[in-house]
Structure prediction request, 384 residues.
Amino acid sequence: MNDRVHFPGHVAPKDIDAVFLTHAHLDHSGAIPMLYISGKPKLYATRATYQQVEILLKDMLKLSGYYLPFGEPEIRKMLISGNSINYGEPVRIKDAEIEFISAGHIPGSCQVVINADKTLLYTGDFTTINTRLINGSDIPGEDFDIIVIESTYAREPHPPRGELEEKIANHVIETVNNGGLVVIPAFSIARSQEVACILYSKGYRGSMYMDGMATKVIELYLNSEDFIDGLDLLTKVYKKLRIVRGRKQRERAQRDSGVVITPAGMLKGGPAIYYTSRVADDPASTIILVSFQLPGTPGDMLLRERKLNIDGKIVPVRAQVYQYKLSAHAGMEQLHEYVSRIAGNSKIFTIHGEPESCEDFANWINNNTSSRAYAPISGETVEV
Prediction:
């Protein structure tokens, strides 16, 4: 390992020995096919990550292919170059030994431990909180030379998950008992399936539909025993679910008094637009957003203005609207506890967050642990 770390530095694809993909989300995987335009580096991830990333990349290509610098051949080359690694299974790359540790973020997500002349932990996106679908992250050891850690919610504590689950279930049961329809726009990967598990666990036995790409993912999870901790629960949920597989079933779902779980989580596309437009003018129905809403997205407009863009027309929303952030990232308390447990005398770099979050987290580490922390900026070279 060199004595410098670049955040980030340009490296030609032909000079890359290996790529380690921590999880399938497109903000981590979406640019990897570009490496296969002129190169063919070895790619390492868990089996569950490969299965999910194939779904996401092909969907992205279908929606945005005209604007992307790669296509189906590069995605195929990327997947063919893939090597599956199990948690705790060391892999040797030249003079370094690499190990994947469960990250608890989504099924198949991992932290990466690199042992060479120095030891490095890259957390990727992670959480220590158990969900209905998967358990929180494993602890990868302690006293690393270098830790690169996410800072997404370093300034924001998460409410107790049990409280959020209770509120979501109560809104659903109350709305359905009053004859309304509940629409829950949710991410296809993990969040939609988790919401279904929450409702079943809380005793909801009314009609429950799942639509869009989330249906393909839940069927994938049912065959991913090694990566789904709540498989028994998910199997029971699947037997209860009504999977939407076409226009007629979609029309039936929106006429029913029940709940529909469907992408996209920020209302930027997918069947969620269809369902929310159907309940927008119905005060007896409910829309529940279960994630952060990026400023400028339709979900953000719904929260701030109680309005939706339906076929280019801005319409007021009379349905009830709620937001409960079922985050898959560690919150402020979890980040503090995690670092306190593993840091030792490490050099820690806080990344993957707003600049203020990275800076605040680095300052907290410096003031509360024996480690030295720094929030690097893009293009900067940091001595380690």
